[in-house]
Design a protein that fits this description.
four-stranded mixed sheet, 3 domains, three-stranded mixed sheet, 8 helices
Length: 238
């Protein structure tokens, strides 16, 4: 409407006609992409599906396993794109242009700790390495499972372990007692700097949390007030 100075009805007819001809493709309501001649018969016509995230899921950001891959914190390659959004939308997997997106709702207060990444002249928000670690420890599912989360945390320690001030600042901003229990336990297990572990201990809250809510067999680690899968903690404490 704006580009061609048309009314809404005329613009809608033009878009519908172009879509029928196959020169554009409808991604979502009100969102279309042009199709190059070489991509006419392809399911996926976008070279970089990340550019859909600001249009479809703002306010939000790419995080979880996708951010881990982007920042070089894992060697695994993932077919789906993990998105955390404050937009009310269905939880779980959805597809756009033949690409699978995993969508998780996140509160507005959690929309921080991101970096702008330019993709095809479009700004895309991606959680920075510190916020990514906090997100996946809070919810191991978006970190591709607890064991993978631990492996990534070990790599994070190698890359960022000498300066954890930003990590503590983020964690304090989130202000979630369960998060300090989880991170404190894992940091101690992986040999993080003692001062960081002490800071986590100092911020413990009452009550108990689960390191992984999906785990069936857990031991209680009383020091951290945390239920931990037996596969990780063989010395039961209680």
């Amino acid at each position: 409407m704006k580009a061609l100075d048309l009314d809404r009805a005329h613009a809608a007819k033009l878009l519908a006609g172009w879509h029928k001809q196959g020169v554009i493709r409808r991604i979502a309501r009100g969102l279309y992409v042009p199709i190059s001649p070489g991509a006419l018969k392809k399911t996926q016509v976008l070279q970089d599906p990340w550019i859909l995230v600001p249009e479809l899921y703002a306010p939000g950001y790419i995080g979880g396993w996708s951010a881990l891959e982007h920042w070089g914190l894992t060697e695994q390659l993932f077919r789906s794109i993990c998105v955390l959004t404050n937009k009310r939308t269905a939880y779980g997997e959805t597809k756009h242009q033949g690409i699978t997106f995993f969508i998780k709702y996140t509160p507005k207060k959690m929309l921080f700790g991101t970096k702008v990444v330019w993709r095809e002249q479009i700004k895309v928000q991606v959680s920075d390495p510190h916020k990514t670690m906090l997100d996946i420890i809070d919810d191991p599912h978006i970190g591709a499972g607890l064991q993978h989360v631990i492996d990534c945390l070990s790599e994070y320690k190698k890359q960022y372990g000498k300066n954890l001030a930003q990590l503590l600042d983020y964690a304090a901003r989130i202000n979630n007692g369960a998060l300090f229990k989880k991170f404190g336990y894992l940091a101690e297990k992986l040999g993080f700097d003692e001062s960081f572990v002490t800071e986590c201990t100092r911020r413990l809250t009452t009550g108990y949390a689960h390191l992984d809510k999906t785990a069936q067999n857990n031991n209680l680690v009383t020091k951290w007030r945390l239920w931990v899968p037996r596969t990780l903690n063989h010395d039961q404490q209680g």
